[in-house]
Amino acid sequence: MSLPTISLESLVSSKSFDKLLTIAKSAGCASSSCGSSAKPDEMDSAVWEKIKDHPCYSEEAHHYFARMHVAVAPACNIQCNYCNRKYDCANESRPGVVSEKLTPDQARRKVIAVANEVPQLSVLGIAGPGDACYDWKKTKATFERVASEIRDIKLCISTNGLALADHVAELADMNVDHVTITINMVDPEIGAKIYPWIFYNHRRHTGIDAARILHKRQMLGLEMLTARGILTKINSVMIPSVNDEHLTEVNKWVKERGAFLHNVMPLISDPAHGTHFGLTGQRGPTALELKTLQDRLEGGAKLMRHCRQCRADAVGLLGEDRGKEFTIDQISDEITYDASKREAYREVVARERGDHVVAKSEAVATVKAAGSSKSLLIAVATKGGGRINEHFGHTTEFQVYEASQRGISFIGHRKVEQYCLGGRGADATLDSIIAALKGIDIVLCAKIGDCPKDQLAEAGIRAMDVYGYGYIETAISALYAAEFGSEPLAATA
Ligand code: SF4
Ligand code: SF4
C-alpha cells in the first residue's frame, strides 16, 4: 500500500493536522524499510534508543526533532573568560541575547505550551545561563514537574562539571540520560588562562589551583556518568592560541573516559558582550580553522559537527528559534498537555525516516562507486526533514555537506542574512552571503531567481533548484557522479 508523499510543512502545519492524523492512523506502509531505523551497525541498540530522537546526539535526528531550553538555573559556581552573566551562557547560546528566566512552575507551563504546538519536540534541556548542577534545586524541580506530565520527553542538562559528581545519582534516578560537560582543558596551566576563579567547598579558588580542582571534578563527573550508562557530550570552546592545539589532548582524555560525543565550538568573542576575552581582543577561530581542527580530531572521540550554539531559551529545530512564540506572558496559567500532535508526528516521521535511510545509503554507494579522490562542498537550503525544501532567498542558514570517497558527511553550517525580504533581494546582503559561502562549490535550494544565481556563478559558486524537495544526499550523489564519475546528471532528484 502506498502512502501519500508528505512534505515537512504538512507534518508541522496545524492546518493540515487532520491529514497528518489520517496518515498516521492509516494501515500498511509504503516503505520497504518501514519500521527500520538508521541505527549504525556498530551501535548498541540500547544506545540507539537513547539517541535516535535526540537532535544533538544524532545528526540524522536533527532533521526531524526539536529541542527546547528553559532558563531556570541562573547561578554559576565558576567564571569563564568568555562569559558575562548579564547574557546567556556562552557554552550553549549566543552571547548578547538575554534569556527569559523562569521559575520551575513557569518552565512547566512553557514546556507544555511548546509540546502542544511543536510536534517535533523531543528534548527539554537546561543549558544556562548559569550551571544546572550548581543551581540544582531549580533544575530538579523543573524536571520533576515536566516529566510527571510529558513522560516521553528526554531530559538533558549542560554543566561546567564542578558540581556534577554530587548529582549523578539523582540524574540517573530522574532518567536524565544525556549530559553535556564543557571541558576546555585537561592541563591546569591552560585552564588558568580560561577560568579566573571557581567557587568550591565554600570558598573561592583562583589560578592554577582553581583549574586543577575543576579538571579533577570534570573527569570524576564524566567517569561517574559513563559508569551509569548516561551518555555524555563534551563541549569544548576553541580559543585560538589558548587551547586550540590542546583540544587534541582533551579529545583523547574524554574518549578514554567514555564520552559519547565531542563538540568543538568556536569562541564567540565581541567587545560588546563585555566578556574578558571580548574586552581583551581575544579572537575566535575562523570557519576554516575550526574545520581543520575537527578534521584532525577524526578517529578520536566521535565529533558533533551540527551544533548551533543555541540560546539558553531556544525552541524548535536546531538552527531555528521559535522562542518568541512562547514567552511566558502568552501562556495560560491553566494549560494542560495534549499529546495528540506529537504522537501523530512520530508515526509519520518513522516512515519518512525509513525511506530517507534507504535513499541515503544508495547515495553514499553512488559517491563511493565514482572512485574519485576529489571532493565537493555543497551548501543546502533546508527547513528540515532531510530535504532541499527552502528557497534561497528565505534561508538564514545553509547546511554544508562534503562528498568524497569517504561518502557524504554533514560538516557544518553557514549562517547568513536573509536575502529576500518583502519580495525583494538586497545586493549588499547577497555580497555577504557570497562571502559566507566561500569555498562552497554548489548551492542546492528549492528555488532561486536568475539574479542571485548569476552573481553566485560569478563568484564561482553554482546554484541550482532542479533537485528541489528531493533528499539532500540523493541530489549530492547525482552531482558527484556527474562531476567525477561516469553516471549522467539526473534532471531531477
Ligand atoms: S559555566 Fe556557563 S554561566 Fe558559568 S561562567 Fe561559564 S559560560 Fe558562564
Ligand atoms: S547548543 Fe548545540 S548541543 Fe546544545 S541544543 Fe544547541 S545544537 Fe544541541
Spell out the key features of this protein.
34% helix, disordered C terminus, seven-stranded mixed β-sheet, single chain, iron, five-stranded mixed β-sheet, alpha/beta, 493 residues, globular, 17 strands, binds iron/sulfur cluster, nitrogen fixation
What can you tell me about this protein's structure?
The chain has 493 residues and is of the alpha/beta class. Helix content is 34%, strand content 16%. A seven-stranded mixed sheet has the order 9-8-5-4-3-1-10. Helix 2 (17-25) crosses helix 12 (340-369), helix 4 runs parallel beside helix 5 (136-149) and helix 12 (340-369) packs parallel to helix 15 (472-484). The protein is globular. The model is unreliable at 1-7, 23-37, 90-98 and 488-493 (pLDDT under 50). It binds iron/sulfur cluster (2 copies). One iron/sulfur cluster binds next to strand 2. Its cofactor is [4Fe-4S] cluster.
Q: Using the alpha-carbon principal axes, give the shape.
A: globular
Largest sheet: 7 strands, mixed
**E-strand count:** 17
Q: What share of residues is helical? A: 25-40%
Provide a short characterization of the protein structure.
Keywords: 4Fe-4S, Iron, Iron-sulfur, Lyase, Metal-binding, Nitrogen fixation, S-adenosyl-L-methionine. This protein has 493 residues and is an alpha/beta fold.
